[in-house]
């Protein structure tokens, strides 16, 4: 743990942040680099062209499935094809399909390949491996057959951590979010238990092919059960519990697997069709979650357990600020671990989560509002995350998603649902609208921060004065200034024989 903290603090060094090592996608920006010249593929060689196109679409499928924006996926596909000598290609990236077509002149028909993007469990290690493979294709002149073999190995490789580690990390994330929102130790324990139950049940449902909507519905029901039962017991045995924080933590965990950042980023960066499709999926999955939570609340009301009325806002004393920031950082690290991120990405995610939680927590003492505060926090996370990802050689998407995950509006969603179910329709829809605005602010802020980070280069240090260069040259050759007696004596000492 001490090593991870030290490494994370090292990433905050300003010189390190703007180092020469950029993320792979940053080096593929149009006009930023020159592709290493290779012999173009003969336009009559159908087999060679098909092999390169199939490789590019496989790489793009992993990127798109991991939540990468459609425009970034398109650029990397074009880049891989261009490295192998196919520069005149058309790439069409939609919601779950990638189509790549290579033109062969005016007299020959184009060659086209297509790849379907299937849903797999989130694996940031797979994303990082593909990121490094693109670097190797650029720098090491890998043959297409070798690159094909490496892609197949990456896709079929098992997760880097056992399932129980990822399941425990999801529970730890829920506990950290509960503390971040204002829940105590009991709330964190309940959030941990309920989230572990949700993950285990949904993993079983996923194996038998249950649609994601019903998985979200089941998760919403399970997220309410421990909090409601414990709250009912608290009234009998006289102990304090805020079930809203426990339920909100479970909602955030279920929302974290959805492509919020990718959907808004696609809409902003010129891929509106893919963005709308992803956003509609996001709304549909959120609807399943809301339905599950709402039905569970209604069922408990029928058995006599009424959850407490939602307060208009959440305030806390300044003395709790460090603990909440630490809880947000732990939640971000836990999300990265639950998504099978590499060890080198964990301290970066920890720092990103701390930055986002700190901005939002400090903003509660001002009057700027939740939407603006979350947008600023997300922009800082995207900016610093993009810079820190250079040193950790981690895709910026890993840092950005992990950093803003603790800030997802789970509590606003729960407040809105509670208001709608308890004849407070105006307040309920106000909270739902606020949750939607916060989600869009998070995604837009991350996109802006990443854009600024990509455009930032290492600062040019001023040229050394002539006298400083001469002094350095004299020291190298043993000619020292007249007052530097110590260096003269050291230079005249005989060196011991080996």
Automatic annotation (TrEMBL):
How is the protein disposed in the membrane?
A: Multi-pass membrane protein
Q: Which domain of life is it from?
A: Bacteria
Acetylation as a keyword of this entry, yes or no, is no
Query: Does the keyword section mention Transmembrane?
Result: yes
Indicate the segments forming the Threonine/Serine exporter ThrE domain, all copies: 326-451
Threonine/serine exporter-like N-terminal domain mapped to chain residues: 54-299
Keyword list (alphabetical) reads: Cell membrane, Membrane, Transmembrane, Transmembrane helix
Q: Report the transmembrane regions from the record.
A: 170-201, 213-233, 245-264, 276-301, 321-338, 345-365, 371-389, 396-417, 429-453
Q: InterPro entries, alphabetically?
A: ThrE-like_N, ThrE_2, ThrE_Dicarb/AminoAcid_Exp
UniProt subcellular location? Cell membrane
Q: What is its main location?
A: membrane
Q: Which family does it belong to?
A: Belongs to the ThrE exporter (TC 2.A.79) family.
Q: Name it.
A: Threonine/serine exporter family protein
């Amino acid at each position: 743990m001490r090593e991870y903290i030290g490494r994370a603090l090292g990433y905050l060094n300003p010189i390190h942040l703007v180092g020469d090592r950029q993320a792979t996608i940053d080096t593929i920006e149009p006009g930023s680099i020159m592709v290493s010249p290779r012999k173009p593929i003969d336009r009559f060689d159908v087999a060679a062209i098909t092999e390169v196109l199939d490789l590019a679409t496989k790489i793009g499928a992993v990127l798109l499935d991991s939540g990468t924006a459609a425009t970034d996926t398109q650029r990397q596909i074009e880049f891989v094809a261009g490295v192998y000598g196919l520069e005149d290609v058309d790439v069409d990236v939609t919601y779950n399909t990638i189509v790549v077509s290579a033109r062969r002149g005016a007299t020959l028909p184009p060659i086209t390949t297509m790849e379907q993007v299937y849903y797999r469990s989130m694996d940031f290690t797979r994303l990082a491996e593909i990121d490094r493979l693109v670097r190797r294709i650029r720098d090491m002149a890998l043959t297409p057959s070798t690159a094909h073999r490496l892609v197949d190995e990456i896709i079929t490789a098992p997760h880097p951590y056992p399932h129980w580690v990822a399941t425990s990390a999801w529970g730890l994330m829920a506990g950290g979010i509960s503390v971040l929102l204002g829940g105590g130790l009991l709330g964190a324990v309940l959030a941990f238990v309920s989230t572990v139950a949700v993950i285990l049940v949904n993993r079983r449902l996923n194996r038998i092919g249950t649609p994601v909507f019903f998985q979200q519905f089941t998760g919403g029901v399970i997220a309410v059960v421990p909090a409601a039962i414990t709250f009912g017991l608290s009234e009998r045995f006289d102990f304090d519990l805020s079930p809203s924080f426990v339920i909100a933590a479970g909602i955030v965990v279920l929302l974290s697997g959805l492509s919020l950042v990718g959907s808004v980023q696609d809409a902003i960066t010129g891929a509106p069709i893919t963005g709308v499709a992803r956003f509609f999926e996001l709304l549909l999955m959120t609807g399943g979650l809301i339905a599950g939570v709402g039905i569970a609340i209604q069922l408990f009301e029928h058995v006599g357990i009424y959850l407490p009325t939602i307060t208009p806002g959440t305030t806390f004393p300044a003395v709790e600020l460090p603990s909440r920031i630490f809880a947000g950082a732990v939640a971000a690290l836990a999300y990265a671990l639950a998504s099978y991120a590499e060890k080198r990405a964990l301290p970066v995610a920890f720092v990103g989560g701390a930055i986002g939680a700190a901005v939002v927590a400090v903003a509660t003492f001002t009057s700027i509002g939740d939407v603006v505060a979350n947008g600023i926090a997300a922009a800082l996370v995207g900016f610093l995350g993009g810079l820190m990802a250079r040193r950790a050689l981690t895709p910026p998407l890993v840092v950005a998603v992990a950093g803003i995950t603790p800030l997802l509006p789970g509590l606003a969603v729960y407040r809105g649902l509670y208001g709608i179910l308890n004849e407070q329709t105006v307040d309920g829809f106000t909270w739902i609208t606020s949750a939607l605005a916060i989600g869009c602010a998070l995604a837009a802020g991350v996109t802006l921060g990443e854009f600024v980070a990509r455009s930032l280069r290492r600062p040019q240090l001023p040229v050394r004065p002539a006298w400083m260069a001469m002094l350095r040259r004299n020291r190298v050759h043993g000619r020292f200034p007249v007052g530097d007696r110590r260096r003269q004596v050291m230079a005249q000492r005989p060196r011991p024989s080996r």
